[in-house]
Design a protein that fits this description.
heterotrimer, B: alpha/beta, D-Maltodextrin-Binding Protein, domain 2, nine-stranded mixed sheet, two-stranded antiparallel ribbon, 20 helices, 11 strands, 14% strand, C: MetI-like fold, 0% strand
Chain lengths: 306, 490, 286
């Protein structure tokens, strides 16, 4: 009896001690990460923030307030590039998620050896250098009848298209490139997450007589929510910042049909030497991405506790 | 409990520190590379205390160089050695970069306030860096000997207003290249064209005659020019120079591309494609493709054509003869003929000349006079004498210094004499440099080109807009940028 | 694995199911693999210029000339691979250790300011790298003056927000009961981490390792910026050197790209076994 009386007080004290102790532990664990972050990520970001209010000159910048921002908002090319980027993102990110999820699910039931083989096969494109691959893709999209895609179309009697040179197909070509190449990472992540689902859940569902689809819907998808959120957020961030493909394949054309925000920022920073403007554009871009991510977190962020 | 926490923290910090120091010490060779400004101050001090001549102090000069010619980057070590022999107290440190990435790297370094002392870039880039005040004016430091060694015109390209910002390496003419056999088949008197030029109407007929069709497919085009991506800029520029618009601004600094001649050129661009003499897919033809088409006989004339292509064609011919499978597959023996660009609207021909050179930079800290002098010595070393002779020979580019010509006298060059004469003719009406164009106007023109002209040109080539549309768009953007009074109206 | 019915009675049903799955997967794989196939095939061609490039589906002649060209091209070709290995290796090890720790902290340890800090970390990911490069360059070159060293290549990548985010997401699905059990037994956080979390997170640590290595190996711009001499360049920077004044040496570039893809394969296969079993099994019951 006396023991029971003791429990509440010791529990409270223990809780308080644990809570305070946890604070210190938490910070200890993230200490190194925080230091690296502060130096190499936070500092450049803060610098960029400051620069966005200046007309940046290496020998001494001039503070010009919001001028860079105002110029950006009134620049029609900027809005066009945002539109292009949004279109690109909407067309590629969900498709990638879908495809990698599908592939991961399909790989699951196979024998171990086969699993490994397929994992390696899908992993391979992610591993190859983007620069080398873009050269290959340029050949695939060759508008002359000798180009691979046009050869394929020729079999169906369709005349060759100027894939990268005409504004109606340029964006589609870039999207096609993304559909066929960037899945390796997502597949690996999804697979890893799938393997973490405890057998007992399936067994319980089996006892209830659930079929494949029900198990998918009630166990797998909820369990994979944190992973899906991760892939969605990082996918959007990555796709909004995309730049290399457009730069190497079309240079932003024709007639700015494939100019992405990343390319615009790049041009402003390096071609026209208007670094302040580039910084302002980057921050606007970051704000857009942040709001989208915020919405994503709200939708998908609830943690599942079992 | 506390001990564990502290231990964990200490462990984490120690691990990161060891990682850092261990990695750092594994690279002894390069840790001595200082910021040249800092290095400078040291030498400055030791020089003063010495009370001796400045040129005795040790100094390092950094240069960022792309592969100017095929063997250029192999020569770096030799060049550094030769320079050091010439000036024992000076070290030349050369950083290699590839053409595309060169600008990105240089621009980051300039933006950060620590560019290399010398960088090899096109002379039109000088305005951009001048605006940022990151260039070093060497007018006072270049000795009269150095200045007199150069031909006047290329040197002018490296000047802006009153300052000289480096030494030119070569002056190249951008023209067209023709297949001798096909030209003769089409009945074109190329020797006369080389010396007398041709008008657009003559050119249009000529390329029509060069087209060979098999039923509905064109087996051989009359004319191909690389216009994919940014190379579209080259195409337009080379044409408008011969249309009375050799520079983006007229002598009284009005924007020139709003002239009606510009509309003429745009219409003619479309005409050549619509005639069937140029491929419909022109906007996707890049440098590799245009050369491939030339070697495989799919086109009679290719552009842009540099004099050095003659060498490339000859090498391929030899590979075909050797029959060892290393020649371009499907290629035929081709004799490369230098051809001028046609003139438009009755204007005088002006050759598209490009001057690239070694431009001198300064960092955030004002460099000392000695360092400046040393940089000039290094730039001159690279841009004249033996080094220039070797590079220019590889490029089949004309020598622009007396010292290089002397050095080159002993180096054999195997060129078609007709081509040599043609290039001389083209150089005789080279594009006059315009050091009077203020850098901010120059920067605006560059932006117009990138954001309006090139994108619209790509759409024009893809037949998505008419020449009139493009002309109106350019005019509207020009008015917005330069004002109603800042443009040419005719 | 029990997502699919384990015992379907007939052997043939299982067999057909598996085969049809494999066919689907193969078809999709073919589409994604085609550019890679072409890359490898062209690497067996002759070292000629791009203008001379002949694009064919099957090599006319198989030779290792381009590989030889690649290694002979610069005396530093081997060094490039070594540099990439050192940089990517260090960054991977440090990320696995510290990002896992941070991910666990953000996921499971309740400490003050946890969510605010995490959001700040995440926001930094959203700024495009073009803009952060210049201040970072100023920091490394002008302030720290360590350009052209391994330190400059490694330090910015020691812990990435991406890895922290990844590990946090994975660890959030570890049941809290396990942690509570350990706490009841008197373990402090560090012991919990070592004895309980790490064994359970082998998969995510393997994934982090692979992804970090891959990202570091493939990155071009930062190494390009901070290296001044050819002997300090990484493989991606070295590969770009094959683009000359007017041509690109296509086949050697592909050869280099193929070679540079190899270490990642080796890494993948060695970390492979962590992918095969979900390790949370039985942890709760036991």
């Amino acid at each position: 009896m006396s023991q029971l009386a003791k429990v509440p007080t010791t529990a409270k004290v223990a809780k308080k001690r644990k809570w305070r102790g946890d604070n210190a532990w938490g910070y200890a664990f993230i200490a190194v990460a925080l230091v690296v972050y502060a130096m190499f990520t936070a500092y450049p970001v803060v610098s960029a923030f400051i620069i966005s209010f200046q007309e940046y000159r290496p020998l001494g910048s001039v503070f010009i307030g919001f001028e860079n921002y105002i110029n950006t908002f009134s620049d029609s090319l900027f809005w066009k590039s945002i539109k292009n980027t949004v279109v690109y993102t909407v067309l590629t990110v969900p498709v990638t998620l879908f495809l990698s999820f599908g592939v991961a699910i399909l790989i699951l039931p196979l024998k171990k050896r086969t699993q490994t083989a397929f994992k390696a096969i899908y992993y391979l494109p992610a591993v190859a250098s983007g620069v080398a691959l873009s050269v290959v893709w340029l050949w695939i999209f060759d508008p002359m009848p000798s180009g691979i895609l046009n050869k394929l179309l020729g079999l169906f009697g369709i005349s060759n298209l100027n894939w990268l040179g005409s504004s109606s197909t340029a964006m589609f070509s870039l999207v096609l490139m993304a559909w066929l190449s960037s899945h390796g990472t997502s597949i690996i992540i999804y697979l890893a997450a799938l393997l973490g689902i405890d057998e007992s859940y399936y067994e319980a569902a089996d006892l209830d007589g659930a079929n494949f689809l029900k198990k998918l819907w009630y166990i797998v998808i909820p369990f994979l929510k944190p992973t899906t959120l991760f892939l969605l957020v990082t996918g959007v961030i990555g796709s909004f910042q995309v730049f290399q493909n457009a730069y190497l394949m079309t240079g932003g054309g024709p007639d700015n049909a494939t100019t992405m925000v990343g390319l615009l920022i790049f041009n402003n920073a390096f071609k026209y030497f208007e670094f302040g403007k580039a910084a302002a554009q980057s921050l606007i871009l970051a704000a857009i991405i942040a709001s989208i991510s915020f919405i994503q977190f709200k939708f998908f962020g609830k943690n599942i506790e079992y | 409990m506390r001990k564990m926490r502290v231990l964990a923290l200490v462990l984490a910090l120690t691990m990161s520190l060891t990682a850092l120091t261990a990695c750092g010490s594994s690279n002894k060779g390069n840790s001595g590379k200082d910021n040249t400004a800092a290095n400078n101050n040291k030498t400055e001090n030791s020089g003063k205390s010495n009370n001796n001549t400045n040129s005795e102090a040790k100094d390092t000069i950094t240069a960022l160089l792309p592969p100017v010619s095929g063997n250029f980057q192999d020569m770096f070590q030799q060049m550094e050695k030769d320079f050091n022999e010439l000036y024992p107290n000076l070290t030349l440190k050369i950083e290699p970069a590839s053409w595309e990435d060169m600008t990105q790297k240089l621009d980051t370094q300039v933006n950060a306030g620590s560019p290399p002392d010398i960088a090899f870039i096109g002379s039109e880039g000088i305005s951009k860096y001048l605006q940022q005040n990151m260039l070093m004016d060497i007018t006072d430091l270049a000795t009269p000997d150095m200045v007199n060694d150069y031909d006047k015109t290329p040197l002018e390209y490296m000047k802006r207003a009153d300052g000289l910002y480096g030494f030119p390496a070569y002056m190249e003419v951008h023209a067209l290249g023709g297949n001798k056999e096909f030209l003769e088949q089409a009945g074109i008197d190329w020797k006369s064209v080389q010396q007398n030029g041709w008008t657009f109407d003559e050119f249009r007929e000529a390329i029509k005659n060069g087209v060979v069709k098999e039923g509905d497919t064109t087996k051989r085009y009359g004319f191909v020019f690389a216009t994919a991506g940014v190379t579209g800029k080259d195409y337009l520029n080379i044409l408008i120079k011969n249309a009375g618009m050799p520079a983006p601004f007229t002598k009284d600094l009005k924007y020139a591309l709003t002239s009606k001649n510009f509309l003429e050129v745009l219409k003619d661009v479309r005409l050549m494609i619509d005639d069937g003499s140029m491929p419909k897919e022109l906007s996707s033809v890049d440098a590799g493709k245009r050369w491939n088409m030339f070697l495989t006989g799919q086109t009679m004339i290719t552009g842009k054509g540099l004099a050095t292509f003659e060498n490339n064609a000859r090498q391929n011919n030899e590979k075909i003869k050797a029959n060892d499978g290393s020649a371009v597959s499907g290629s035929i023996p081709v004799e490369y003929i230098v051809l001028p660009v046609p003139t438009f609207a009755g204007e005088e021909p002006i050759s598209s000349t490009v001057v690239d050179g070694y431009v001198t930079f300064r960092g955030k800290k004002e460099p000392t006079d000695e360092h400046k002098a040393n940089v000039v010595k290094a730039a001159y070393f690279l841009a004249s004498g033996k080094v220039a002779a070797m590079t220019n020979n590889d490029l089949f580019a004309a020598h622009i210094t007396k010292s290089a010509r002397d050095a080159a006298a002993s180096m054999p060059v195997d060129r078609n004499p007709d081509n040599v004469a043609a290039v001389e003719k083209l150089l005789s009406h080279a594009n006059p440099p315009r050091p009077d164009i203020p850098s901010d106007l120059g920067a605006k023109a560059i932006k117009m080109e990138d954001e309006v002209i090139v994108p619209k040109l790509q759409a024009l080539l893809a037949n998505e807009i008419t020449p009139e549309d493009m002309y109106e768009a350019v005019k509207a953007a020009a008015i917005k940028t330069f004002g109603e009074d800042g443009i040419v109206k005719d | 694995m029990a997502l699919y019915k384990k015992h379907t009675g007939k052997q043939t049903v299982k067999y057909t199911r598996n085969t049809s799955i494999m066919i689907l997967l193969l078809l999709f794989a073919l589409a994604t693999l085609f550019p890679i196939y072409f890359m490898i095939i062209s690497s067996f061609g002759d070292p000629v210029e791009a203008g001379a490039m002949d694009y064919s589906l099957w090599p006319a002649k198989v030779s290792l000339e381009s590989y030889k060209f690649f290694f002979d091209y610069s005396e530093h070709s081997y060094r490039w691979l070594l540099n990439s290995l050192i940089v990517a290796g260090s960054v991977t090890v440090s990320n696995v250790i510290f990002a896992t720790m941070a991910g666990y902290a953000f996921a499971k340890i309740r400490f003050k300011g946890r969510s605010v800090l995490f959001s700040i970390l995440l926001c930094a990911m959203m700024i495009p790298y073009q803009v952060t490069q210049v201040p970072l360059y100023i920091l490394i070159v002008n302030i720290f003056q360590i350009e052209n060293t391994y330190r400059a290549l490694i330090m910015p990548g020691l812990v990435t927000v991406y890895s922290i985010f990844l590990t946090k997401q994975f660890m959030s699905s570890i049941p809290n009961e396990i942690i509570e059990c350990a706490k009841v037994e008197g373990c402090n956080q560090f012991q919990i981490f070592l004895k309980v979390i790490v064994p359970l997170s082998k998969t995510v640590m393997a994934v982090t390792a692979i992804l970090t290595f891959m990202d570091s190996w493939n990155t071009f711009f930062w190494p390009f910026l901070v290296t001044n001499t050819m002997d300090m360049q990484t493989i991606q920077v070295g590969l770009k050197n094959f683009r000359f004044a007017n041509t690109t040496y296509f086949a050697p570039m592909m050869a280099g790209a193929t070679i540079s893809a190899l270490p990642m394969f080796i890494l993948f296969f060695s970390l492979q076994k962590y992918f095969l079993e979900g390790v949370t099994v039985g942890a709760v019951k036991g």
